[in-house]
Amino acid sequence: MTARELFEVIGQLDDDLVLAADAVPRRRARTILRRVLPAAACLCVTLLGVWYLRGSSGAASPGTGSEAVADLRSEGSPEMLADAAAPAQYAGALNGTEAAAQLEDNAGAGSVSLMARRAEELFFAEGLTPSDEMPVYRSTLTEEVHEDAMRSRLRQVLTALGADSAQADTAELVSDYAGGLDALQQTADKLRSKAEQYGWGDQVLREYWNGAARLTAQVPVCDAWPDGLRVTVSNDLSVTVQGESEDPLLSVTTRAGADEAAGQAGERYGALLSGLLGDGYRSITDGGDCATTGETMSATLQFESRPGCRAALSLRTDGRLASLQLTDPPMEELGRYPVLDREAADRELAAGNYVGSSSLTAEELADPDRLVCARLCYRGSTLLFPCWEYVVDEGETSCTDDGEPLHSFCVVYVPAVAVSELAGAAD
Amino acid sequence: MTDREIVALYWARDEEAIARTAEKFGVYCRRIALNLLGSRRDAEECENDTWLAAWRSMPRNRPERLAPYLGRITRNLALDLWDRQTAAKRGGGQTELILEELEGCLPAADQVARQAESAETARAISDFLRGLPEEPRNLFIRRYWYCDATAAIAARYGISEGKVRVTLHRTREKLRVFLQKEGVAV
């Protein structure tokens, strides 16, 4: 099979997958650096999708539809094959626990988080200052359509954008799911039944409800927003703002560049950010991770005012807003809990008590010479709790950037509070 | 107007179907074509050809959802146009880069004994994608179905472009291993 044939085959992917990828993205609580999740945990959750959704395709394909001749070539890479079947002992002992389930939104992206030619290229926002006790938060989102809260959020965003907030009252509530709004509860019930039958976690239902409905409003072209904007609020109250333009995006490659861009964005969009995040927000932009082609990366500038409340901005080269994602799920404080200090967290890491996977052993992960960043931050989904986040250099990969080998950097977590004791509170 | 109503117009051979389709799916299809071809003029040509192809194909087919149906037509037409253009000169769209990236997923010829039926392979890849977490799955489809530039994907999801590329790279590797195990050409 040639690449061309493979491309054509991909054109025949199931309709529901294609439509889902075109839905307005939902922004979950996470950092720009995404985390690692053990393959087993991913499989456990996503198998539900495979099982439940299988057979939902079948729309006619107007394209090629013909048999493809298998002219398959070898692009094999022993390293990559090895990576795909990483030894179990290289996965954290906390994988599969409640802590891992809570970190899944942050840790679900794959087996390696970052790539760069060298560690010095990466930069990270400052972590939180540890204290003896820190609050843990719990999501108050329920399994239903939150129409009132969605309208309230849309009103907040339109006001922050200086647009007509009355649209929040008239925007049509829609669902992109098959069957529309009327079928949501019925499908959720079936999904819950499958989840219980096969022992899958709550994430499937959570994800289902998060994207179950949306409200959309348009901000017309004006001096402030020369491209016009489309504002979408999802059922998890996350917000996506997109400008209609295909002009190039602003790129940054260094910490200094990111700081400068964040400063300019803060100046230009200060009122917007204050309106969305409240006062006292700070830049939490991470970056410096490069890719396999050596091209400049577009920048995503991140701002946060409190745990779980953050905005990610992409700008055009002239500073116009390209997109904005706001994450601010409704949370309540569960209580204050004793926090593991850094030394204790280091010991846990060395003992293998972490969430994530890596090609390194626990001992290697704890090697100070490999450590790129260790910081305290809030992570989670239904529970938002402090974690120690470690970014560790795994060494050179088989990928190259213009001939120069790239290093892969894994990200693993040591929960800073005893999440297992809070598990019941997440429900 | 709902998809079903538009399809009914096609089946009734009502030319209004084309106007309604263009109104509802014009931007959607034009963007796919633009991603592949890198030329607004060519993208518009593809878009117009899509309506014609839909008109011709619809009496045989009754798609439930028009977006992927029309998107596939646009994709195929754009690829055909790209083929013709490439014969003379390579354009500035994403096609070449996308095909280069996909080459890395292909299993070794000597490990595959028979030809693939493309629809079955597409089903297998769909199943593979369902086994991925939501984000890498959508990133893959945005890149290789919608043919979005990596920068556009990064902006869409509010993540770094590096993250997009690394995730795509990993997903391609996993897909290659998966296809190898499946013996693709299944």
The CATH level-2 architecture of the largest domain in chain B is identified as: Orthogonal Bundle
Query: What is the overall number of helices of chain A?
Result: 13
Q: Look at the structure and name the CATH superfamily of the largest domain in chain B.
A: Winged helix-like DNA-binding domain superfamily/Winged helix DNA-binding domain
Largest sheet of chain B: none
Largest sheet of chain A: 7 strands, antiparallel
Taking all Cα atoms into account, the compactness measure Rg of chain B is 18 Å
Mean pLDDT of chain B: 80
SSE string of chain B, helices as H and strands as E = HHHHHHHHH
Low-confidence stretches of chain A: 27-89, 107-112, 291-295
What is the count of β-strands of chain A? 13
- Estimate the global geometry of chain B from the Cα principal axes: globular
N/C terminus separation of chain B? 40 Å
CATH class of the largest domain in chain B: Mainly Alpha
Please report the number of helical segments of chain B. 9
| Spatial arrangement of strands, main beta sheet of chain A | 3-4-5-9-8-7-6
Q: Work out the helicity level of chain A.
A: 25-40%
In oligomeric terms, what are we looking at? heterodimer
Low-confidence stretches of chain B: 109-116
Report on this structure:
The complex is a heterodimer of chains A (427) and B (186). In chain A, 29% of the residues lie in helices and 23% in strands. Chain A has 13 helices and 13 strands. In chain A, strand 7 and strand 8 form a beta hairpin. In chain A, helix 6 packs antiparallel against helix 11 (270-277) and helix 8 (184-198) packs antiparallel against helix 9. In chain A, 49% of the residues are buried. The model of chain A is unreliable at 27-89, 107-112 and 291-295 (pLDDT under 50). Chain B is 73% helix and 0% strand. With 186 residues, chain B is mainly α. In chain B, helix 1 packs across helix 2 (16-37), helix 2 (16-37) crosses helix 3 (40-57) and helix 7 packs across helix 9 (161-182). At the A-B interface, helix 1, helix 2, helix 3, helix 4 and strand 9 of A face helix 3, helix 4, helix 5, helix 6 and helix 7 of B.
